[in-house]
Write a sequence for this structure.
């Protein structure tokens, strides 16, 4: 969730509606039942029920090598249908051999989530039995994820500072949508990953639920104020987005506000990710020290 839109796209109706999401959920769920998918599931905000008009649709799927072409064609068709409704389909399709060799973006926390989807009857087959993850240790996995996102966010922040005019801001927003980049929602991933780190077990990851639990956890009190600040940026864009949909904001104000919010969200996210990596890295190093083990 959390995509940005240009004012032109909003004014021309090139944004999804609630009916679009309801329709696409049914289409995707029906498609994933086809025989060329050995195991599959929707995951993320849509099946959880806390999606918004700025969300995407997340899909994971396993196919046999012999069925890969048919499965890929199906995913491409679904991606096109979703895009026609201005919804981004984020699909992860892997063959059995790719999944078992660990050639996928999922880590130990994802496998636990897959188990929950199966237990709740929301998955076809048993995806967690196919997706193997080297190491399968939640704390190093979460630290590695923070490091990867810090690197990409630092690069995005640097590039955004080079933008010179509104036309380039719009181009940046469109590229972000195409690439699945959501600068206003980096804080939500951050909160989820730290709660996984803390509990080392499945933790409810609905947006409001996980944020409120995080803000009650004194372990991470150093990060509370910054997370609140980042959530405020996201809420401010929600307000701006809704005002633009209603025709109550002019182009100058929209561009000025969007540019400021993106810049502040990226810079603040870089800071909080860097701080967390230092703190969690020290904890992990201490727990792995030979002296402590002795």
């Amino acid at each position: 969730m959390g995509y940005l839109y240009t004012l032109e796209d909003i004014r021309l109706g090139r944004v999804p509606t609630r009916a679009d999401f309801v329709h696409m959920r049914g289409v995707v769920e029906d498609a994933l039942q086809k025989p060329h998918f050995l195991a599959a599931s929707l995951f993320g905000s849509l099946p959880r029920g806390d999606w918004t008009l700025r969300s995407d649709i997340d899909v994971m799927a396993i196919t046999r090598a012999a069925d890969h072409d048919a499965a890929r064609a199906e995913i491409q068709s679904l991606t096109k249908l979703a895009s026609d409704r201005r919804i981004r389909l984020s699909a992860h399709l892997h063959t059995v051999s790719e999944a078992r060799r660990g050639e996928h973006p999922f880590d130990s926390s994802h496998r636990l989530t897959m188990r929950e989807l199966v237990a709740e009857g929301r998955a076809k087959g048993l995806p967690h039995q196919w997706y193997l993850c080297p190491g399968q240790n939640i704390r190093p996995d979460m630290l590695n994820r923070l490091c990867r996102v810090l690197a990409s966010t630092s690069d995005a922040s640097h590039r955004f500072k080079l933008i010179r005019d509104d036309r380039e801001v719009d181009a940046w927003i469109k590229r972000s949508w195409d690439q699945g980049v959501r600068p206003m929602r980096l804080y939500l991933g951050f909160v989820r990953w730290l709660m996984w780190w803390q509990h080392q077990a499945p933790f409810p990851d609905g947006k409001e639920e996980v944020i409120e639990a995080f803000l009650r956890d004194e372990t991470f009190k150093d990060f509370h104020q910054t997370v609140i600040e980042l959530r405020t940026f996201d809420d401010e864009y929600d307000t701006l987005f809704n005002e633009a949909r209603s025709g109550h904001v002019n182009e100058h104000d929209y561009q000025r506000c969007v540019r400021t919010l993106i810049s502040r969200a990226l810079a603040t996210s870089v800071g909080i990710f860097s701080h967390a990596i230092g703190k969690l890295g020290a904890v992990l190093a201490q727990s792995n020290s030979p002296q402590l083990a002795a």
Residues 138-293 form one domain. The mean pLDDT is 92. The CA atoms of residues 39 and 62 lie 5 Å apart. The chain has two domains: 7-130, 138-293.
